[in-house]
Predict the 3D structure of the following.
Amino acid sequence: MKERVIYLKDLFATLLKKWPVALCFVIAGALALNFYGVYKAGKASGASASSAETLNSLKSVLTAAEAEHAESSASNYKWLNEQYIAVSRELADPKWEGQEYSDAHQEVIDRMVKINSAIEKCTTNMSTAEKAYYTALISTEKEETPEAKSVRWIQPKWALIGAALGLVGFLAIFGFAYVLSDKIKTEEEIREYFDLPLFATVGEKALSETDGIAKVRDRLSAAEDGRPYQSVCLSYEGADGEAKAFAEKLGNELTKNGTNVVAEEDLSNDLELNRKIAGVDGVVLIRHLKVSKCEALQKDLNGIRTSGKKVLGTVLLKS
């Protein structure tokens, strides 16, 4: 349980360090969905404009009296249709169960018949052009004219959805990348997974280089039987990097204490392994936290243990 908590804390800290990338994902998502919202709003505005153009086209072939008659009939139809819907709902009320043939029920039915008859009379004495204009009017909801209706370039709802999706995308991509990464992520992996003593963690928010060297020196000052180690191999990773510089400084300090030091960059070559670590009491591994790969470390461990030598401990460097 403790290891899982440490793992999750390290994952959170790693993601937190990438906040500029997360911000880019959020902004990109918000912009993308905002533009989509603008596109949808523009499309709806275009449809409204198209409806208005159709009505104007149909109206242009009518006289003023015909247009006024069609508009008055359409307005009357909309009002009658609302009444028809209200009466239909009244008839569907469960209160009429068992009263289908009552006077009150028949009165409601008669009212519906009258409304329906009035709706049919709306198109009486209309020409074909009038009916076309009338039909277009009753099938189109009242909208703002295109001139009055403008498209906003900021769509808050879509922008918020895009920002949330961008954040989720960032967490998914970098979260999976962290989980699937083969790199050494925490100090606990060295202790629990590889079953190795951890001498020191040197670097950012950890021990200074001087304190780290002193701690390793003290740990190597006496073997398990109480005698000091006579010869130690320092295995580092990276020919020109921080690990090599640390190995050289640690080697100089151990040499002052009378310990014979062999520094080797690569212990993965099986043919050279026995020659490189022949005559040493054990090996100290110097690796980079969140840089060195677990697979490479395991390969080195297998070679060292196969040769009969002991891994004395590990030093992790934090850049």
Q: What stands out?
A: The longest strand covers residues 310-318.
